[in-house]
Amino acid sequence: xxxxxxxxxxxxxxxxxxxxxxxxxxxxxxxxxxxxxxxxxxxxxxxxxxxxxxxxxxxxxxxxxxxxxxxxxxxxxxxxxxxxxxxxxxxxxxxxxxxxxxxxxxxxxxxxxxxxxxxxxxxxxxxxxxxxxxxxxxxxxxxxxxxxxxxxxxxxxxxxxxxx
Length: 164
Description:
The protein is mainly alpha-helical and 164 residues long. The protein has helices spanning 12-20, 23-33, 39-46, 50-62, 83-86, 89-102, 150-159; strands at residues 66-70, 77-81, 127-128, 134-135. The strands form 2 sheets. The chain has a two-stranded antiparallel ribbon.
């Protein structure tokens, strides 16, 4: 399905979705976080068509989420997450934690994410206050930043009037 571009929107979420908002892209990223590096690994594990996989991997490389390097054997290319790609890990964890909570498997958790060093389970990803308190969605609101255009600023203020 072809989606309408969100690139024209002055919105951080819209800009992020332009890069990672397609479901196959998220599944490719999941597999990359789990160690997949080669085209054939992604294709075999996901069962995705080669043309879609090629398009998605090329887009991830173009957007600086992954890099393409010759494999040590020289016969293949490997796709590696960049720092920009690694910065998506909390997003991926948050989606997986949401899925476990709201779309659970009746037999229990599918995956348990643990700290490498201690082996202890990590806390579910959530918004945190500056002093480390977990915040619910109802405890958070958006305020205008310097990059917000005037039209969006007025819309935000209509939805969330500033106390005077």
